[in-house]
Amino acid sequence: LPSLSVPSSMHLIQVDSVQRWMEDLKLMTDCECMCILQSKPISIEKDEQNELILSSQYSTCDNLQLLLKRAWIISTELTRIAQKLEKNRWQRVHSMTVRVNCHVRSMVNEYNTFSRDSSEEMHQLEKLLIDKCSEFTAFTERCIQTEDEQTLKSMKSCINETLTTVAQYFGQLIELVLTHEAQNLLRQIELSDSVYMTESAISSLFSLTQEGAHLCRIIAKEGGVVALFKICRQDCFRCLYPQTLRTLASICCVEEGMHQLEKVDGILCLADILTDNTHSEATHAEAAAVIAQITSPHLTFTQHLSSFLENMEEIVTALVKLCQEASSGEVFLLASAALANITFFDTMACEILLQLNAMKILLAACSDKHIVDTPYSRDQVVTILANMSVLDQCASEIIQGNGVQLLMEMLFERSSSGNSAEVAACERVQQKSAVTLARLSRDPEVADVAVKLSCIPRLIKLCRSPTERNNSDSVLVACLAALRRLAVMSPDGLEDSDFQQLVKPRLVDSFLLCTNMEESFV
């Protein structure tokens, strides 16, 4: 490229433009340009060291993000090559192979630019991958130079084999690189006495956990949970507790993270943090988030729950206090989510909640729109109410706290944004409020309050109008069950047609009738 004389007043614009161009170029460029510019660093001055400007300005976290983005592109391209190969699109296969070759070389060069301590094993794997990519490109080039069907057919199996080997080497290299980087970050966390350096390493580690379960497994296997709990047991790092706990919650979404948590008595550490009033609300909230994660009813591995039961009373008490004193909707959401999950796996938790007047606290929180401000928060509250409603003592608590009124309001829950996650949360709120009403209405006093609050017409509307329940079958079943329970307690509240269609038949028949209803029938 010819050198240009740029006025000093234009220097800032020139630098910004070049940097922007370089960022775009790294991921969006023609194969021919890549081949020509490959490994040609652009220096600031002729005599200065030949280092890419880009690499010096990025942190370790940014470099890893770039590496992961490049890896995703290569993985996608390899999948597409396999698809084009099936259709014998030889020209496309070759051009894509050249592109993959360029991306692989760029990825290796980029990684070696910011990583100065790569192992011999990694260098060997890089060489194997680059050599195999070159071989792959040579194979596909020969394919576009011949039109003989038999030759192409015999070469196709070789290309398939080479593609499989490239994918295998690529997967091994990425695994090795990510393991190496996780080890470096964890070594930094374990050896550093500096709050700043430790915070930087934890931040990078958290970014890695956001890339999916596979990276969480790598971090867990390399001792991530152990290292992070070690931070949570040192007073000198108290200011890092929220960030550390947030990272732990992410790692504990995988089984390997759970096993590590069990080994280091992580639940006892979480209980200590939650019950220590000297910690900040942010620390308590993030500890609640870890509890919510490890008690999730969606997890299939539950070995850790035995040690959880030993500390459950302390944890539940602390979480109820956090709900009561929450200064924001986010803190309340995390604490109530943890409580909701706990009520799923042990009825003792519901009894503890009753003793702690949790029902009164949760119902009071729902009247504060700054605290319970989303369908997600209401979903957690109604989950707790539904699970507690199996206890007979629960009915009087609900009536005293105007809980039936709240359940009635929840039957009207609708999404304001149309966001799919929010719509799903609204459906869960409607379903669980109907379930709670059905369970509580075995008590005549609750049923009487529900009838007076016009719960029956609302339940009928939800059964008969698919749009009211967002076409949700689970909401329909729950509403039919609640309606039948209230109809037993107050048969005069229904018109004959409603009774004949929604109450008298078997539940499955009423369900089929309602799912086939058109809006015009409403």
TrEMBL record:
Q: Kindly give the Gene3D superfamilies that the UniProt entry links to this protein.
A: Inscuteable LGN-binding domain, Leucine-rich Repeat Variant
Pfam hit, one:
Insc_C
Protein inscuteable homologue C-terminal domain location? 70-522
Query: Its GO biological process terms?
Result: apical protein localization; asymmetric cell division; establishment of mitotic spindle orientation; regulation of asymmetric cell division
What GO cellular component entries does it have? apical cortex
**SMART domains (UniProt xref):** ARM (SM00185)
User: Any idea where the Protein inscuteable homologue LGN-binding domain is?
Assistant: 13-57
What InterPro entries does UniProt report for this protein, alphabetically? ARM-like, ARM-type_fold, Armadillo, Insc_C, INSC_LBD, INSC_LBD_sf, Inscuteable
Instruction: Show the GO MF annotations.
Output: cytoskeletal anchor activity
- Please give the PANTHER family that the UniProt record associates with this protein: INSCUTEABLE, PROTEIN INSCUTEABLE HOMOLOG
Q: What is this protein called?
A: INSC protein
What gene name is listed for this protein?
Insc
